[in-house]
Amino acid sequence: MIRQFGRQQISAMMLTTAAMLAFAGPASASTVATTLPAIFPTPVSMTSGQGTITLGRSVVLVAAPGTDPATTALVRTILTSAGVETIATARRVPAAPDRPHIVIGGSDSALVRDALALGKAVPDTQAEGYTIASVAIGDSGVITLAGHDADGLFHAAQTFRQLVKRAAVPALVIRDHPAMPIRGTIEGFYGAPWTMTDRTRHLDFLGSMKANTYVYSPKDDPFARDRWREAYPAATLSSLGTLVATARRNHIDFVYAVSPGPSICFSDPADAQSLERKFEALRSIGVRSFYVALDDIEYAKWNCDKDKAAFGASGPEAAGVAQARLLNAVQTYLLAEDPNSRPLIMVPTEYYDAKETPYKAALRKHLDPRVVVQWTGTDVVPPAISIPDAKAATKAFGRKTLLWDNYPVNDYATTTGRLLLAPYAKREAGLSGELTGILSNPMNQEAPSRPAVAGVIAFAWNDTGYDAERTWHAAAADLADGDPRATDALLTFFDTQHMAPTFGSQPWQEQAPQLKATLDSVREAIAGEDASARATAIAELAERADAFAGAPDVIRSGTVDPGFAAQSRPWLDAMQLWGRALQLTAAGLDAANTGSAAATRYFAEASRLAAQAAAIQSTPGATRFGGPIKIADGVLDRFVADAPTLFAAQR
After folding, report:
1. Which of the 8 DSSP states describes residue 337?
2. 513-648 belongs to which homologous superfamily?
3. Which CATH architecture has domain 182-466?
4. Positive or negative CA dihedral for 305, 308, 314, 320?
5. Alpha-carbon Rg of the chain, whole angstroms?
6. Alpha helices (H) along 301-409
7. Separation CA 168–CA 33 (nearest Å)
8. How confident is the model over 539-566, as pLDDT tens digits?
C-alpha cells in the first residue's frame, strides 16, 4: 500500500504498529523492547516495572484452591498457543523460581495475594475487576492473574492472552475493571437472523473482548414475536441450550427476549401465563435473564376489548400504564422463581429521544424501579450521544437507561448495499456515569460486525480511556490473526465502508476518508503547475490502486477470519472490480499527462468496469433491504467519472 508521509499518515502508521503489538505473533527476543503493550479494551491502570519474562518451553501453573477449572483450562490453552510445551503444576511459588510461574485465582486467596505482593500490586476490588502483576526474578519470574470474582479472573485471562503474544512479557501491574455493568450486543435486527454457528463464534468473540451480555432477540424468529405464545420445537430449544452453555463458558449473560407487543392482551391472565410458560421453557435450558421488547408496535389501539375495559381509551398514556402492569407482574414472577435473578429488561414503545411525553411519564410513575429500560439515544440512529442526552433520558424514564446503540446494524433503507465498518465514535467519554451499559445492535453479517462491536465494548469497558482509531486498527489485526499485510488489506476495505447513515439524509460518519484524501491530492496536483508533483501524485495513485485492487485477494487468502471473507463476498467482488477501474484510471491519467492517445482507451475501460462493479447486488435475503453494493460511493465513483476531464479542463 502506498504511504504518504504527512502528519496524518505517520499517525496512522503509528496506530497500526501499536495495534500490532497487541495481536501480532511472537518476534525474536532480541527485537522486543521493554515497553508497555497495547491492550484492548484499554485497562484502567497499567504501570511498568523492571525487566521482562520470557515464557520459553516450560512453565509452572499455580492455581489457588477454588479456582474455576474452566478458566484454568483457558490459561493452559493460552500458554500452549504461546509455544509453551510443558506445563507443570505446583501449590506454591518458590523463593527462586527456575522457570516462569503463572499464579491464578481469586484475589481473596492468600496464595494469590502473596504473589501480587511480589510486584507490590494491590487487588482490584470492583465487580468483574482483575489485577495482573508480572515480576522478573533472576532469569525467570512470576505472573499473577487475580480476579475479584470469577468473571474478573476470566477477564484477566483474556488480557493475558494478549500479553503472551509478545516474545517477552514486560514486568508490569494492570488493575482493571469495567466502567459499565452491562456490555455486549443485542441480536435485534430485521432480516435473516444469524445462524447458530454465527452466534457461537460471536459469543467467543464477546468473551475475548470482556463483554458480559448477549440478548437473543432476532425480529424474524417467529416463536419470539409473531407466534410468541407457542412453544419452541424441541430441536430449536436444544440448539438454544447449546448456545446458552457457550455463553456461560465465555462469562456472557444470555438474555432471552420475547416480543409480544403486536398481539398481546395486557389485561388477560392467559397471556401473562403464556409469557411465564415461555420463560419456563427457556429456564429449563439454563437461561436466567429475560427481556420483554415492546418496540415497533402500535399503541394507538388495543389488541383486545379487555384492555379498553381495564385501561380506558387507547393512547400513549394508557399504553404506558398497561405495559408497566404487565412488566411488574413479570418482574415479580421472576423473583419468585429465583430471588437472585437479574432484573427484567424492557425496551419501550417510545425508545428514542428523551422528550417528556404522557407515555414516558406513565412508565416513570408505574414501572417497577428494578426493571431496566433500554433507550436508543436522541434518535433511532443517533449521530452522537452526549452526557446531557443521557441525563435527559435518566430524567425521562426515572432511572439510568441501558443504551441500545443502533450501530453497526444495517437493516434500514439508507444502509442498502452497505456494510458499516467505521470505528465506533461520537459517544462522549463519561457516559458511564449516566448509563447502566451499552448493547450494540450488529449487522446481519456477524463477522463484519466485529470491528464496530469491538469499539462499542471497549468504550463500555473504559469510556474515558477509549481510543476509537486504535481500537479499530486492533480489531482489524485481530480478524487478520496478527498478519500485517492482511491487516492493511482489511483497513483498506474498511475505508470503503466508512459511511454510517442515519434515518435522515446526512450520515454521522463520512465515506472513505483515507481514499478521499489520496484522490483529492491527485486532483490538486493535476490542477497545479508543478509537473513533477503531478507525475509523482499519479504514480502514487497507481500504487494505491494496486493495493486497493489486491486487497480482496489478501482478505480471501485464508489469514483473515473465513467468516468475514464469506459474509463480505459481494463487497469484495465489487471492490476488486472498482480496484481494476482505479488502476486503469491511474494509467489513463499517466497517459494524459504525457500526451498519449492511449488515455481515451484506458478511461473507457475504467468506465466499463465501474459500471460492472456498480451492478453487483447484495446476497439475496441476507439483509432486510437488498440492492446494489456500495464501495466508497460518492468518492471513488466520482473520481473515476471525473478523471477523463481533469486534463481537458486545464488545456
Report:
1. H
2. Hyaluronidase post-catalytic domain-like (1.20.58.460)
3. Alpha-Beta Barrel (3.20)
4. negative
5. 27
6. 305-311, 316-337, 358-366, 387-397
7. 9
8. 999 999 999 999 999 999 999 999 999 9
